[in-house]
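Quick review question:
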């Protein structure tokens, strides 16, 4: 059960302490407090764990200081959607809104290679009105002899250039909790020019200690990539690890499943799960067409499979696109064969917009249909 507290109930005040004492005395119940930054104000949510079936929802909702109570009806207590659950499905970071009703594009380098490529990429993004990008400094590689990313040595120039070109958010993978500290220190050193979204890759989705560490910090939101060889439920539980430790600013990324049944694509594209994840949880959903498709192959009309996969995700309501671009894909040190050339950025963005407009039309169609079913006349 979740108790959402009155917004004017100050933590530290006497009524707050009385409420907490009352909850602490409930038999076989543990209370976990989460402070969540809402659009206007800080919201305090109390998660009750244990024999909650014995608690009466109305009794709990009428406790002094409680605004409302929500019975958790399925898994994913914190991030899930529950009956009569009016907790938000969006949040803001660095002035950018991330939610189940928005769409953000994160185009950029799979891996940082040279300052020159970083700068050329950022300049093109800025010229096309982009404020978000992806740039990997720590790369998890299958082969130990492959380029592992420049690590913390590249952070100063990446952050400085990102700020110079007006970026608000850079998605950057971390594979160890030390990387979060290194990113934090480099940002402070550079004067905090840009925000970072910490990416946890498909290979680390069940690194539970990493999930807990990243979940315990609230400075940075998290982009969690679905495990390529586990069930959706297992991946969503990984997201819940982050949230149960306190960080609810989590975006869930579909990036394809490892299976030869998806051949000739690198992974079996799984973007039909966009509405499923929206139905189960309050997380914004990202799609990564680059790592799903993994090639620059195109249909007979010349439209790249990566672009087809992108719009399939967007037309199904995806809220974010993570996509590899490179000024010179043949020189990229990681994943060059799947990168789009930066000249293709305007084409890509326009294609995404076509799909987004189509999704919004579909939404409108459904809403008109639902209204007519309720017997309401069209406005
Ligand atoms: C990446 O986005 O660069 C990446 C390594 O992705 P994934 O974890 O999905 O393989
Ligand atoms: Mn990659």
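Suggested answer, residue by residue:
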């Amino acid at each position: 059960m979740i108790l959402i507290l009155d917004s004017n109930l100050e933590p530290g005040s006497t009524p707050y302490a009385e409420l907490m004492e009352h909850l602490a005395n409930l038999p076989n119940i543990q209370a976990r407090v989460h402070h969540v930054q809402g659009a206007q104000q800080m919201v305090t949510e109390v998660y009750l764990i244990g024999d909650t079936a014995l608690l009466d929802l109305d009794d709990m909702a009428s406790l002094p200081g409680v605004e409302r109570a929500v019975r958790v009806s399925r898994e994913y207590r914190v991030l899930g959607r529950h009956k009569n659950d009016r907790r938000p499905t969006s949040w803001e970071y660095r002035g950018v809104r991330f939610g189940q009703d928005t769409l953000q594009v994160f185009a950029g380098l799979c891996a940082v290679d040279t300052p020159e490529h970083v700068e050329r990429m950022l300049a093109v993004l800025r010229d096309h009105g982009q404020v978000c990008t992806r740039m990997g400094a720590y790369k998890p590689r299958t082969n130990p002899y492959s380029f592992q990313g420049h690590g913390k040595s590249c952070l100063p120039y990446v952050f400085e250039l990102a700020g110079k070109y007006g970026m608000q958010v850079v998605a950057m993978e971390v594979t160890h909790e030390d990387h979060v500290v290194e990113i934090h220190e480099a940002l402070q050193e550079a004067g905090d020019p840009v925000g970072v979204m910490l990416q946890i890759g498909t290979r680390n989705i069940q690194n539970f200690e990493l999930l807990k560490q990243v979940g315990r910090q609230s400075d940075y939101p998290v982009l969690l990539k679905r495990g390529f060889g586990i069930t959706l439920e297992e991946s969503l539980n990984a997201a819940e690890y982050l949230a149960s430790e306190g960080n609810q600013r989590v975006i869930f990324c579909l990036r394809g499943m490892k299976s030869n049944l998806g051949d000739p694509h690198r992974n079996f594209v799984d973007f039909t799960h966009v509405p499923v994840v929206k139905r189960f949880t309050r997380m914004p959903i990202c799609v990564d067409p680059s790592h799903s498709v993994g090639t620059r192959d195109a249909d007979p009309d010349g439209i790249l499979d990566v672009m087809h996969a992108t719009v399939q995700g967007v037309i199904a309501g995806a809220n974010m696109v993570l996509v590899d671009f490179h000024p010179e894909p043949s020189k990229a040190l990681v994943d060059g064969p799947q990168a789009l050339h930066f000249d293709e950025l305007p084409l890509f963005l326009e294609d995404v917009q076509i799909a987004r407009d189509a999704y919004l039309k579909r939404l409108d169609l459904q809403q008109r249909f639902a209204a007519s079913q309720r017997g309401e006349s069209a406005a």
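Why it works: The CA atoms of residues 17 and 51 lie 22 Å apart. The pocket of phosphoenolpyruvate (ligand 1) is lined by residues 110, 136, 173, 201-203, 225, 255, 288, 291 (CB under 6 Å).
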